[in-house]
Amino acid sequence: MHRALPIRWSLSRWQPWALIITGVCLIAVMHQAYATIYTEPDLQVWWMAVRLWLDGIDPYGPTGDRILGTGSGFAYPFPAVLFCLPLAPLSLPWASTVWALMSLATVCAMPFALHDRPDPRIAAVMLAYFPLWASLEEGQWGPALLLWGMLSCFWLRKERWLRSGAVASLVLLKPNVGLALLAGLVMYALHTGAPRRWWMGLACGLLVFWVGTQALAPGWPLEWFEQIRAYDAEDQNRIDAASVVGALAGVIVVVSAILSWRRQKSALLLAGVVTAALLLLPTRSFYNHVVLLLPIALLPLRIAIPVVLISWGVLIVPAVSADMVLARALILYLPLAIGLAAAVRQIDTHRGEEPCAS
C-alpha cells in the first residue's frame, strides 16, 4: 500500500509532460501534412480573402475573383473574413494547422458543453466520425459552425440569454449548412421557453451580421448574392432528401422530433430539427456533414458508437453506386435517424439529466 503512493505521485507528475509532448507531436505532424500533402485546402480561399481585404482589395470584386482563382468568386458572407483575421499573419500551412486544432478542440469540448454529466468516452467516439476528417483535410467551415452552436447551447444552459442568442447568429458564416443549426437552436429556444432576452440577442446578432458589418465592407450582401448566383458547382443544388433512403430518413427524423416535443425531450428535438433541416439543404459534400456531430453528441453513447462507425461506409458505397446523394442518405442520415428514434423511445431518461437543459 505504501509503495503504491509514490508510483501514483510519479505518474501524476509525468502526465502534464506527456500531454505537452503529445500536443507538440500532433502539431508537428499536422503542419508537415499541410505543408507537403494537403497544400491547397479550401481554407486557402478565405485565408487569401482576408489578405486581399487587408490590402484594400474587394474579395467580391473582379480583381479579388481573379486572384482567388475559384472561378466563382468569394462565396461566403463578409463576416467570414473577419472571423479569419487571426490567420492572416500566418503562412497557409500554419493557418491550416491552427484551424485543424480548433476543429479538434471543438469536437472534444462538445460533450462537456452540452451535458451536465458527460461521458468522456463520447469525445473519443466523435473523433472517429468520417465527415470530421474530410473537413480537416479541406479546412472547411463545419467545425467553426459547431463551435458557435455549442457555445450558444452552453450559454443558454447557463442562462446567459443575450450572449447565447447573439452567438447563434454566427452559424450563418456558411449559410447553406448553418441554417440547419440555426433552425435547431430556434426550435430549442421555443421549446424551453427562452425569455425575450435570447430573442433580442439573436436579433442583434443578425443585425450586426448583415447590416453592421457593412461599415467595413459597404454593400457586401448584394455582391455576395451575385457570387452565389454565379456559383455553379457540380451537384450543388441537390438535396439529400431527394433519394428514397433520404426521404425515409427524413420521415423517421420528423416523427422523432415531434415525439421529442411532446415528451419534453428538448435536446433530442434540437438534434432532430438539425438533422431534418440538413436533409433539405444543398450541402453536397461529405465534409459539410460534420455538423451532424451536434445531434450525435446528444445521443446516448451506446447509440452514438454505431452511428459514427457506420459513417466510414462512405468509402465502400461508391464501389456499388456512383450516386453520392444515395450514399450520404444511406451511410450518414439513416443510421442517425434510427439512432434518434431509439433515443426518443428510451423512457428511463430523466429530464434533469437531459443535455442542454436550461
Please characterize this protein's 3D structure.
By secondary structure, the protein is mainly α. It has one domain (26-353). It is built from 17 helices and no strands. Helix 13 packs antiparallel against helix 14 (266-279). The longest helix is centred in the first third of the chain and has 33 residues, at 4-36. It is globular. 43% of the residues are buried.
Instruction: Tell me the Rg in angstroms.
Output: 21 Å
Strand residue percentage: under 5%
Low-confidence stretches: 348-354
Q: State the total count of DSSP E strands.
A: 0
Apparent shape:
globular
Overall structural class, as computed from helix and strand content, comes to mainly alpha
Distance between the termini: 45 Å
Order of helices and strands: HHHHHHHHHHHHHHHHH
Measured as a percent range, the helix fraction is 55-70%
State the helix count.
Answer: 17
Largest sheet: none
What is the overall pLDDT average? Answer: 86
Total separate domains: 1
Summarize the structure.
With 358 residues, the protein is mainly α. It has 17 helices and no strands.
